[in-house]
Design a protein that fits this description.
Blueprint: H1 2-7, H2 10-62, H3 67-76, E1 84-86, E2 89-92, H4 96-113, E3 116-122, E4 129-135, E5 161-165
Antiparallel strand pairs: 1-2, 3-4, 4-5
Helix pairs in contact: 2-4, 3-4
Length: about 170
């Protein structure tokens, strides 16, 4: 009978320890899920930034005569519409400079809709122009220091931006 008295409550302690271990495992799983969701959101933002930069680069490539206008219009966030369209289809109804302003306005609008900012500036260590796209907490409106180190050309740690060499 004395052996029975020493065994009282042991099963309950085993159950409590098992529940504690299960709770720790579930908390770890929840943490992994949150991290996976953050990574998926970051991947989506990067994909959108790549598509915005590629769209702008292709438009600039098609309208090479107006490269300076693209840079000025994107950086000034120029808003312009119209310029295209006729009864025969997609025919330019304006100059290459005006077309650059319309393209830039469309790109800036698309980027703003998804919380991205677009700039064109000289590439660090190159004579070419780069397209910079930033999102999240990274602000490139006034300068590009939040995205890229001007002295080395390296990305700033934890910045959320993309740099695409264009022309």
């Amino acid at each position: 009978m004395s052996n029975m008295n020493t065994q009282k409550g042991v099963g309950l302690m085993e159950v409590l320890v098992a529940l504690l271990l299960l709770a720790i495992g579930i908390l770890g799983f929840v943490g992994l899920q949150l991290r996976a969701m953050d990574a998926a959101n970051e991947a989506t933002d990067r994909t959108v930034a790549i598509n915005i930069a590629r769209d702008l680069a292709e438009r600039m490539r098609v309208n090479k005569l107006a490269l300076p206008e693209y840079k000025a219009a994107i950086n000034a966030k120029t808003e312009k519409s119209g310029c295209v369209g006729s009864e025969q289809g997609y025919l330019p109804n304006c100059s290459s400079e005006e077309m650059a302003e319309v393209d830039s306005s469309q790109i800036t609008e698309k980027a703003a809709e998804v919380g991205h900012t677009v700039k064109i500036n000289n590439c660090v260590g190159s004579s070419l122009n780069c397209i910079y796209v930033a999102w999240g907490d990274t602000n490139i409106d006034s300068n590009l220091d939040a995205c890229i180190d001007a002295s080395t050309g390296a990305y700033v740690a934890n910045s959320k931006c993309l740099v695409m060499e264009a022309f």
